[in-house]
């Protein structure tokens, strides 16, 4: 990622010094830089690297999140001036970014956290960039970040979103949405593979068709490419060769943790994280299959049409984005960050992993009213009215036939709960008051702290 960002910066006309702790990697990177070599200054020590940069310096770190970032900051600090700027462009936990931002304000150098999305290709040719930190830092480097970012109709997909960890929080939620979007695609893949006995190639063709419609997105595009690719070694579909154990580096989990901490619902994202955790327990799943038999039951071909799966995905996707934007809104309130929601939707339209046609409509809907639940914006409310029946059918057919659809199911439950005024939480409040005298509000009177007659009944 770091090497590709450096090449992107060089290609946009900025001279850039580069350093990697493994010197041979810097040498081979420089040797392969071709005509961009003129704009690159390879260095072999941190001292040489710092000396090669014009003051006030701006340094981008692209190393694994956590201890490596702290270690790199500590190594750089004695070599830098107070008005120099360190930019952490990795997938940092935003609480770490808040901490590093606070520390930088007492002793310098200045600090900025930016989220970069788009994978290696995005880093090289135009990622989406979510920046947080002091406005003065954005004023120093914003023009470079905008130049290297992806463009949507010539508009840069890079923006300053707020102070301290605001950029990394938005990148984390981006990844949480990425997890849910990917999981829901995997779930409809499962219905087609195990329920409808479709081949990988057939499923790939369905995804390809969907990519021409409302679901047009990078993730649907790569899904049809993954489904349609054969293993060069065996000639079998790649999907039949890839082990069904999903990895994760932590950003999806951080999103779920953050939602729980902020008390905002992100159930589709939580289901996606839990699904990756379950997928990783292959040994336990083998024992489970031996004990109970595999869950999936083949469906009658007429039980579900692929159009219905497409509509279910549309509904699920709207809910998952509504939850993601709701989480960003809640964090913005908590930290007093500006967090321009329409701007966030706009910078996700190109360059990043969750780029999709729907983000255009989301940007418009959030511009109308950023604090409204996205599913209530007229455009998305109409889409949900058209598609929630399909979501219900897919979840029901899945449940009845052992085809797990946890993220779609979580999305449906959220939709049903959030459109129902009278929930079942009165029972929870009654239980809480019974065992702990926690008190409740009444439907027929103002005020709080009312109690039921339980003590009397149990004496
Ligand atoms: N891969 C992706 O698609 C994306 C990754 N990211 C984020 O970007 C960051 C980098 O990821 P990526 O490029 O994929 O990772 P890589 O593992 O490919 O590269 C990591 C880099 O960090 C260096 N490094 C590792 N540990 C240390 C350390 N303790 N001190 C100093 N340098 C260290 C490595 O040096 P050496 O070569 O010597 O090992 C290498 O240059 C991560 O935070 C990741 O989450 C963000 C968006 C997308
Ligand atoms: O940030 C990214 C894309 O936006 C990275 O690709 C990220 O590492 C993917 O997350 P995970 O490894 O947990 O699936």
Verbal overview:
- The structure is a single chain.
- 57% of the residues lie in helices and 8% in strands.
- It is α/β, with parallel strands linked by helices and 459 residues long.
- It folds into 3 domains: 2-164, NAD(P)-binding Rossmann-like Domain (Rossmann fold); 174-418, N-(1-d-carboxylethyl)-l-norvaline Dehydrogenase, domain 2, CATH 1.10.1040; 430-458, Single alpha-helices involved in coiled-coils or other helix-helix interfaces (Up-down Bundle), CATH 1.20.5.
- The protein has a 5-stranded mixed beta sheet, with helices on both faces. Strands 1-2 form a two-stranded parallel ribbon.
- It is globular and about 75 Å long.
- The termini are far apart.
Poorly predicted parts: none
Instruction: Kindly report how far apart the N and C termini lie.
Output: 68 Å
Oligomer: single chain
Globular, elongated, flat, extended or rod-shaped: what is the shape? globular
Helical fraction: 55-70%
State Rg: 25 Å
| Bound molecule kinds, no repeats | NADPH dihydro-nicotinamide-adenine-dinucleotide phosphate, ribulose-5-phosphate
Structural class: alpha/beta
CATH class of the largest domain: Mainly Alpha
CATH architecture of the largest domain: Orthogonal Bundle
Strand order of the largest sheet: 3-4-5-6-9
| Count of DSSP-assigned helices | 21
Sheet of most strands: 5 strands, mixed
Reported by name, the CATH topology of the largest domain is N-(1-d-carboxylethyl)-l-norvaline Dehydrogenase, domain 2
Function: Catalyzes the oxidative decarboxylation of 6-phosphogluconate to ribulose 5-phosphate and CO(2), with concomitant reduction of NADP to NADPH.
Family: Belongs to the 6-phosphogluconate dehydrogenase family.
GO molecular function, one term: NADP binding
Active site: 171, 178
């Amino acid at each position: 990622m770091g090497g590709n960002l450096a090449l992107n910066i060089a290609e946009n006309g900025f001279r850039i010094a580069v350093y990697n702790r493994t010197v041979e990697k810097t040498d081979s990177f420089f040797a392969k830089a071709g005509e961009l070599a003129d704009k690159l200054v390879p260095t072999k020590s941190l001292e040489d690297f710092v000396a090669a940069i014009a003051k006030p310096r701006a340094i981008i770190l692209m190393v694994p999140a956590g201890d490596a970032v702290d270690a790199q900051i500590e190594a750089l600090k004695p070599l830098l001036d107070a008005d120099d700027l360190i930019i952490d462009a990795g997938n940092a936990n935003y609480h770490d970014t808040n901490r590093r931002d606070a520390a930088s304000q007492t002793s310098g150098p200045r600090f900025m956290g930016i989220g970069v999305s788009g994978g290696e290709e995005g880093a090289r040719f135009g990622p989406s960039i979510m920046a947080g930190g002091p406005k003065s830092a954005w004023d120093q480097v914003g023009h470079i970040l905008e130049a290297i970012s992806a463009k949507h109709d010539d508009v840069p997909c890079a923006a300053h979103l707020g102070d301290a960890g605001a950029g990394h929080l938005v990148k984390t939620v981006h990844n949480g949405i990425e997890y849910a979007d990917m999981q829901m695609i995997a779930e409809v893949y499962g219905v087609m593979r195990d329920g409808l006995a479709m081949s990988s190639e057939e499923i790939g063709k369905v995804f390809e068709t969907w990519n021409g419609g409302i679901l047009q997105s990078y993730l649907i595009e790569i899904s049809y490419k993954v489904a349609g690719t054969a293993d060069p070694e065996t000639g079998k579909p790649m999907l039949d060769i890839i082990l069904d154990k999903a990895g994760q580096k932590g950003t999806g989990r951080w999103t779920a943790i953050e939602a729980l901490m902020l008390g905002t619902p992100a159930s589709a994202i939580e289901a996606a994280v839990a699904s990756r955790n379950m997928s990783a327990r292959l040994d336990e799943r083998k024992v489970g299959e031996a004990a109970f038999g595999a869950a999936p039951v083949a469906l009658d071909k007429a039980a579900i049409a692929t159009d219905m799966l497409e509509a279910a995905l549309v509904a699920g996707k709207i809910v998952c984005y509504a939850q993601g934007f709701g989480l960003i809104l809640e964090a913005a309130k908590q930290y007093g960050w500006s967090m321009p929601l329409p701007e966030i939707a706009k910078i996700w339209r190109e360059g990043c992993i969750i780029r999709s046609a729907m983000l255009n409509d989301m940007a418009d809907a959030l511009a109308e009213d950023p604090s409204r639940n996205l599913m209530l914006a007229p455009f998305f409310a109409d889409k949900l009215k058209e598609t929630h029946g399909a979501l219900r059918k897919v979840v029901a057919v899945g449940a009845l036939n052992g085809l797990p659809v946890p993220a779609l199911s979580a999305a449906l439950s959220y939709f049903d709960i959030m459109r129902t005024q009278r929930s079942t939480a009165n029972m929870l409040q009654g239980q809480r008051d019974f065992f702990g005298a926690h008190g409740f509000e009444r439907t027929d009177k103002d005020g709080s702290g009312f109690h039921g007659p339980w003590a009397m009944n149990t004496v």
